[in-house]
């Protein structure tokens, strides 16, 4: 391809009488190339396509997806196209989106933000930032209400992040999710940074709660709380929240289970470890920067937070908890009970509303789909079920049973006729019939017909 300068020079030399071969030797180009530009077959600065555009088969799909969701990230859409067979790179893909003008215009998004943002330096292994993300409209089968809850933790130096789905944002679920995120990240840093969440500190003062202070001691970290209305102090995890919401949550299927959604989030987080970065002028990746963090290993066991969640007993005397079912004594069907267990412990207790412990079970692995039943509960349930049966002869459904006298009397009342009992008869007046019969004693004559 000739540049604009080469095209101008070639045209000037041609006007001076140079041959095409001489111009080609002078510019170091092929004669056929010079001939195409001088004849106008090819324009400078524009490459001739080598073949059909590989993006053309995917234009309709991209137009439909962006019409349904105008704010869908290009990287998320590229992930979907890669599964459909598209092999182009990100820059080629975004250039095709602009060329075909596939993304609808959104006027509110054009407002300039115009806010200065400071750059905060984070040494390796210095800080992990945590934040909750409320995810709207979760699948109905999850049974978590209007929002699912995701705790995201991000390493401030490298930008590596991981997330864990939970059913609530209370203290025990926070500790459980924190422990899982730390282990997914590969260890803990010196500091943990939070916003003013009530399970960590008192929002009005920013002072740590007594319960979370004990948890921080257990993990050997210093807890740092952001000043009020200063969310940009934890911009690394905020960006991770954005990625999780746009590239993962928007694509979770309606029939996906919690375990499947968590697995999809883990795959995305690992994939994003290959993101390119530039540090001190040298190209690198998130994974390479994370290797420099020198994280400290977490404690062998999680902080022993106490869980207390409400469940409803099924008619089969079972209680569902974390993808498994645990038995209780019979007679509690439909009642609300409390499932209590300590994080890291192997046992769980099921307690009634009055505080009585009715079952103690060995806790199965979450999501294993196991049925844990106590032998005593099984025997008691069978005894109760068998006791509800009777040995009396069951009703015979094919016996002939015509309407009784009482039913016939009620039917007669509904018809407006008098009823005097089972021997009552209907009396018909025959006087009109007798008068008509008397007139017909003799055959009618011709005169009577005329009359």
Automatic annotation (TrEMBL):
<dbReference type="InterPro" id="IPR001584">
    <property type="entry name" value="Integrase_cat-core"/>
</dbReference>
<dbReference type="GO" id="GO:0006310">
    <property type="term" value="P:DNA recombination"/>
</dbReference>
<dbReference type="Pfam" id="PF13936">
    <property type="entry name" value="HTH_38"/>
</dbReference>
<feature type="domain" description="Integrase catalytic">
    <location>
        <begin position="120"/>
        <end position="293"/>
    </location>
</feature>
<comment type="similarity">
    <text>Belongs to the transposase IS21/IS408/IS1162 family.</text>
</comment>
<dbReference type="GO" id="GO:0015074">
    <property type="term" value="P:DNA integration"/>
</dbReference>
<dbReference type="InterPro" id="IPR025246">
    <property type="entry name" value="IS30-like_HTH"/>
</dbReference>
<protein>
    <submittedName>
        <fullName>IS21 family transposase</fullName>
    </submittedName>
</protein>
<dbReference type="GO" id="GO:0003677">
    <property type="term" value="F:DNA binding"/>
</dbReference>
<dbReference type="GO" id="GO:0032196">
    <property type="term" value="P:transposition"/>
</dbReference>
<keyword id="KW-0815">Transposition</keyword>
<dbReference type="InterPro" id="IPR017894">
    <property type="entry name" value="HTH_IS21_transposase_type"/>
</dbReference>
<dbReference type="InterPro" id="IPR009057">
    <property type="entry name" value="Homeodomain-like_sf"/>
</dbReference>
<keyword id="KW-0233">DNA recombination</keyword>
<dbReference type="InterPro" id="IPR036397">
    <property type="entry name" value="RNaseH_sf"/>
</dbReference>
<dbReference type="InterPro" id="IPR054353">
    <property type="entry name" value="IstA-like_C"/>
</dbReference>
<dbReference type="Pfam" id="PF22483">
    <property type="entry name" value="Mu-transpos_C_2"/>
</dbReference>
<dbReference type="InterPro" id="IPR012337">
    <property type="entry name" value="RNaseH-like_sf"/>
</dbReference>
<keyword id="KW-0238">DNA-binding</keyword>
<feature type="domain" description="HTH IS21-type">
    <location>
        <begin position="5"/>
        <end position="66"/>
    </location>
</feature>
């Amino acid at each position: 391809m000739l540049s604009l300068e080469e095209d101008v020079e070639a045209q000037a030399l041609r006007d001076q009488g140079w041959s095409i071969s001489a111009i080609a030797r002078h510019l170091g180009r092929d004669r056929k190339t010079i001939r195409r530009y001088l004849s106008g077959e090819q324009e400078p600065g524009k490459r001739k396509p080598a073949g059909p555009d590989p993006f053309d088969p995917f234009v309709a799909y991209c137009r439909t997806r962006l019409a349904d969701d105008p704010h869908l990230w290009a990287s998320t859409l590229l992930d979907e196209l890669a599964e459909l067979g598209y092999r182009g790179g990100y820059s080629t893909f975004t250039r095709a989106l602009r060329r075909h003008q596939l993304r609808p215009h959104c006027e509110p998004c054009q407002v300039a933000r115009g806010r200065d943002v400071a750059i905060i330096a984070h040494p390796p292994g210095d800080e992990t930032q945590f934040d909750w993300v409320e995810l709207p409209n979760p699948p109905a089968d999850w049974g978590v209400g209007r929002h699912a809850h995701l705790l995201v933790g991000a390493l401030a130096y490298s930008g590596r992040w991981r997330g864990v789905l939970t059913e609530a944002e209370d203290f025990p679920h926070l500790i459980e999710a924190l422990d899982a995120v730390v282990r997914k990240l590969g260890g803990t840093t010196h500091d943990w940074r939070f916003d003013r969440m009530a399970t960590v500190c008192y929002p009005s003062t920013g002072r740590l709660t007594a319960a979370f202070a004990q948890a921080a001691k257990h993990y050997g970290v210093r807890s740092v709380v952001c000043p009020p209305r200063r969310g940009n102090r934890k911009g690394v995890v905020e960006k991770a929240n954005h990625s999780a919401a746009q590239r993962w949550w928007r694509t979770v299927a309606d029939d996906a289970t919690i375990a499947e959604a968590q697995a999809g989030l883990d795959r995305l987080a690992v994939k994003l470890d290959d993101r390119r970065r530039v540090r001190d002028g040298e190209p690198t990746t998130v994974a390479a920067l994370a290797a420099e963090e020198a994280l400290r290993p977490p404690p062998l066991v999680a902080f022993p937070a106490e869980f207390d969640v409400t469940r409803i007993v099924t008619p089969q005397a079972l209680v569902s908890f974390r993808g498994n079912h645990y038995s209780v004594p019979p007679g509690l069907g439909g009642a609300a009970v409390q499932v209590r267990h300590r994080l890291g412990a192997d046992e769980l207790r099921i307690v009634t509303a009055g505080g009585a412990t009715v079952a103690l079970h060995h806790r199965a692995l979450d999501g294993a789909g196991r049925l844990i039943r106590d032998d005593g509960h099984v025997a008691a349930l069978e005894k109760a079920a068998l006791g509800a049966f009777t040995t009396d002869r069951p009703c015979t459904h094919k016996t002939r049973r015509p309407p009784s006298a009482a039913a016939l009397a009620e039917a007669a009342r509904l018809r407006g006729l008098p009823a005097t009992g089972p021997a009552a008869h209907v009396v018909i007046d025959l006087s009109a019939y007798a008068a008509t019969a008397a007139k017909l004693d003799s055959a009618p004559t011709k005169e009577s017909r005329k009359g």
